[in-house]
């Protein structure tokens, strides 16, 4: 199947099975703290008892809002920006495990459905969020409206 790119994606050209681009991110304690400082009312800092790679305990979790922002970044690489925020578009995330500071997190996915409904042209995608051990951190269902 084809890999989607925002510049060439339109409802007619997208097929079930098409792949989203792959996005890889790495957050440090500093980048998480900076994100939390910019959105203090929306984000609660969570700590995990797991030790980080340096042996330090009480590592920070990557906030759910930051993971969602990364999903949006992935979508911006696959679809025209106006379709991501169009009426009918939505992102639904199911968090499975924490993403922790210094984890390398990858985002990948594919088109799982395409339909017309109530005058909207909708494309549904499944996005998989994994850490470097290939453990699922979150599953995301995305609907993009054209």
Structural class: alpha+beta
Provide a count of the helices: 3
Q: What sort of overall outline do the alpha carbons produce when their principal axes are compared?
A: elongated
* Percentage of residues in strands: 25-35%
State the strand order across the main sheet: 1-5-6-7-4
Mean pLDDT: 89
Largest sheet: 5 strands, antiparallel
Low-confidence stretches: 42-55
The quaternary structure here is single chain
Query: How many separate domains?
Result: 1
Count of strand segments: 7
Whole-number radius of gyration? 16 Å
Give the helices and strands as they follow along the chain: EHEEHHEEEE
Task: Provide a brief overview of the structure.
The protein is an alpha+beta fold and 146 residues long. It is built from three helices and seven strands. A hairpin with a 2-residue loop joins strand 5 (104-117) and strand 6.
Keywords:
146 residues, alpha+beta, Thiol Ester Dehydrase, Chain A, 5-stranded antiparallel sheet, 7 strands
Question: Mind explaining what this structure looks like?
Answer:
With 146 residues, the chain is α+β, with helices and mostly antiparallel strands. The protein has one domain (11-145): Thiol Ester Dehydrase, Chain A. It has 3 helices and 7 strands, in the order E-H-E-E-H-H-E-E-E-E. The chain has a 5-stranded antiparallel beta sheet with strand order 1-5-6-7-4, with helices on one face. The protein has a two-stranded antiparallel sheet with strand order 2-3. Strand 5 and strand 6 (120-130) form a beta hairpin. The model is unreliable at 42-55 (pLDDT under 50).
């Amino acid at each position: 199947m084809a890999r989607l790119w925002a510049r060439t994606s339109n409802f007619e050209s997208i097929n079930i099975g098409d792949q989203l681009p792959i996005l890889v991110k790495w957050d440090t304690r500093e980048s998480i703290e900076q994100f939390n400082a910019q959105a203090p009312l929306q984000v609660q800092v969570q700590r995990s008892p797991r030790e980080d790679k340096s042996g330090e305990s009480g590592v920070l979790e990557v906030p759910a809002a930051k993971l969602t922002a990364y999903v949006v970044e992935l979508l911006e690489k696959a679809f025209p920006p106006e379709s991501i925020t169009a009426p009918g578009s939505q992102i639904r995330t199911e968090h499975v495990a924490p993403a922790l500071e210094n984890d390398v997190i990858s985002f990948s996915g594919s088109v799982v459905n395409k339909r017309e409904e109530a005058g909207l042209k909708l494309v549904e995608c499944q996005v998989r969020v994994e850490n470097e051990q290939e453990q699922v951190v979150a599953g995301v269902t995305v609907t993009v409206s054209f």
